[in-house]
Design goal:
The complex is a heterodimer.
Chain A: E1 14-15, E2 18-19, H1 25-29, H2 38-45, E3 50-51, E4 63-64, E5 70-74, E6 77-81, E7 112-113, E8 122-123, H3 125-149, H4 154-162, H5 190-198, E9 233-235, E10 243-247, H6 251-263, E11 267-271, H7 274-283, E12 288-292, H8 300-310, E13 318-323, H9 330-336, E14 341-344, H10 349-357, H11 366-404, H12 408-424, H13 428-442, H14 449-474
Parallel strand pairs in A: 10-11, 10-12, 12-13, 13-14
Antiparallel strand pairs in A: 1-2, 3-4, 5-6, 7-8, 9-11
Helix pairs in contact in A: 3-4, 7-8, 11-12, 11-14, 12-13, 13-14
Chain B: H1 12-20, H2 22-49, H3 52-68, H4 72-86, H5 90-119
The chains are: A alpha/beta, B mainly alpha.
């Protein structure tokens, strides 16, 4: 049952442990250190957080994980537009007309959120990280339980842990990475409502379900020789529990991908072809399959079809295509074949990280451009895209010059320009890298700059392709 | 006679290490170097037997591998060969074969030097 919008009074808002009656922008600014940029903070908090800033000419602020979750901070009030509502039906004093979507920097301010339906809790960074970790643990526990149970529905398992027990605060939704029918949200008790309003709501503890070790080896005697189609190499994970199968026939590419995954804390098994992948999946449940498209014999498209047939719906893994071609139309071909996402080669470690954390992460966010089109029209949008595409090479060249000359001031300026231009069009990944470079420039710490710059280089072509595709929609 | 230009970015190992650590970078260099001979054989065999799929695959593999170790110019040559093979442009493949083999040998030698330097 869809609930009505909840009017959000400032009395309902918590900051940390403290209930506040009125939130001002200054109070928000005090929450975080001055040298932290919202994008940087958001990335550190959770790579799945999508960030957007809107301005009506006054002070608006927004952070959410979904394009439809908006916080508006306007003249001391907080307004929530929840994901169940039609866009434009904001709650509170800000009308959609007033909230002309314009990218807007709110320096040094960041709000984390934990909202389900029309409920909201503002929490500090540490709490937010805690919520994310616990939600992830619960989700993985549920996955492990459903695997053990055989016939359990993964979506149902996820849904069950997504709704809070009475007296607890709903955790933010984590991308489930599984398919299945959406379920109606469970009702939240009056006691929870009361506790939330009184500032007594608690973050739920994860259930004490034993977790399987990551990439735990199958129970085989040590002396038994490996099966002919056993993974060629397994890397244990350190921080993440996801089970990842890498299907890649090129040894160097496979090694590179496994080392990147290892750097990011993910364990993985590597097989070199489609039949081996299917065999591995029969033996072990994988949540994510990184699949090279151009495999000899049976290609990635065919393997995807086999996987989707063999493990339909919720039983199937999240499949991310790896391809060196990066051609227009490749992404569509991958999605049409049943893959969920796409990573161009050579792989960018930051893009890989972003994709593993949020399968909906986009190099370019179409919603931002859509909002912009509402304000400036199609012609304005195409002009803006053209302008960005024209300027991007020279802006990146300026970054290269600044890094080569070890000139922190120039790096700061060049990165700031690129960041601002990228943000306007929702080019999140490049904007994020540029923001980090800007910070490095500001503090004259250029050690990490070359690596960040190479990441920008590695995604720029794909970004251009994405923007050109979007431009055709408005041109 | 002038020395042939270096194939690999001298900072390649450092750049790789920034992403996957020093040991990881060495592993990549070793893995790529160990695979070169197989791909060269694949390329030659494919060309001799008219199996251009094999040629395309070898060029494709060497393209991404060489890009990781800083052989960007050579990766460009591989792209040319990959495209030529996919379009059955055998004359381009034959024209570029000698250059391809010579440069691949230089890459192999430079990788060996990188490994030795890193281990010493």
């Amino acid at each position: 049952m869809r609930r009505h919008p909840t009017r959000f009074n400032c009395d309902d808002v918590l900051i940390g442990e403290e209930r506040v009656e009125k939130i001002t922008l200054d109070q928000l600014k005090d929450l975080y250190p001055l040298n932290q940029h919202p994008i940087q903070v958001a990335e550190e908090l959770l790579p799945t957080v999508r960030t957007r800033w809107y301005s009506s000419g006054r002070s608006l602020f927004n952070v959410g994980d979904s394009p439809d979750d908006y916080f508006y901070v306007l003249e001391g009030s907080v307004v929530l537009s929840d994901r169940d509502q039609q866009r434009g039906q904001t709650v509170g004093p800000v009308s959609q007309e007033e909230a002309i979507p314009m990218p807007y920097m709110v320096p040094s301010v960041h709000l984390a959120w934990a909202a389900t339906d029309a409920r909201i809790l503002l929490i500090d960074r540490r709490q937010f990280l805690d919520v994310i970790q616990k939600a992830k643990s619960r989700r993985l526990s549920a996955l492990a339980q459903s695997s053990a149970g055989g016939s359990a529905d993964l979506w149902a398992a996820d849904a069950a842990v997504s709704h809070p027990a009475p007296g607890t605060v709903p955790a933010p939704a984590i991308n489930p990475g599984v398919r299945g029918p959406a379920t109606a949200p469970a009702p939240i008790s009056e006691e929870f409502e009361r506790n939330l309003a009184l500032g007594r709501a608690q973050i739920p503890e994860p259930p004490q379900t034993p977790m399987p070790a990551p990439d735990e080896p199958e129970q085989k005697p040590a002396s038994e020789p490996p099966a002919a189609d056993a993974p060629l190499h397994s890397e244990p994970g350190t921080a993440h529990m996801e089970r990842i199968l890498l299907v890649e026939d090129h040894p160097t590419d496979a090694k590179m991908a496994q080392l990147m995954l290892k750097t990011l804390g993910y364990g993985s098994d590597w097989v070199s072809g489609g039949p081996q992948a299917l065999s591995a999946m029969e033996r072990k449940r994988y949540q994510i399959v990184l699949l090279d498209v151009q495999l000899p014999g049976v290609d990635g498209f065919e393997i995807t079809r086999c996987i989707r047939e063999r493990w339909p719906g919720a039983a199937g893994p999240h499949i991310i295509a790896l391809t060196a071609r990066s051609l227009k139309g490749d992404r569509e071909a991958c999605l049409a074949a049943g893959m969920d996402d796409y990573i161009p080669k050579p792989i960018s470690i930051h893009l890989l990280s972003a994709k593993l954390n949020d399968e909906n992460w986009a190099l370019v966010d179409p919603k931002v451009i859509e909002h912009f089109a509402m304000a400036v029209g199609k012609t304005g949008v195409t002009a803006l895209i053209d302008s960005y595409l024209d300027a991007m090479p020279s802006m990146i060249a300026d970054l290269h010059k600044a890094v080569a000359a070890n000139n922190a001031k120039d790096l700061h300026l060049a990165a700031h320009s690129l960041k601002a231009a990228a943000q306007v069009l929702g080019v999140h990944l490049i904007a994020g890298y540029a923001a980090k470079l800007e910070t490095l420039g500001r503090f004259a710490k250029l050690d990490g700059a070359p690596a960040l710059l190479s990441q920008i280089d590695s995604v720029r072509q794909e970004t251009v392709i994405e923007l050109q595709k979007l431009r055709t929609l408005y041109g | 006679m002038a020395e042939p230009a270096r194939e690999l970015d001298p900072d390649a190992l450092k750049k790789l290490a920034e992403i996957i650590g020093h040991d990881g970078a060495i592993e990549i260099v070793q893995t790529f170097r160990a695979d070169i001979q197989n791909r060269l054989t694949e390329f030659k065999t494919g060309l001799q037997q008219g199996d251009l799929k094999l040629v395309e695959r070898a060029a494709h593999t060497l393209k991404s591998g060489s890009a990781y170790v800083g052989g960007h110019s050579f990766a460009g040559l591989c792209q040319t060969l990959e495209t030529a093979a996919s379009e059955s442009r055998t004359e381009i493949l034959l024209e570029k074969q000698h250059e391809f083999e010579q440069r691949l040998l230089r890459i192999s030698a430079e990788l060996l030097a990188l490994e030795s330097g890193a281990n010493s």
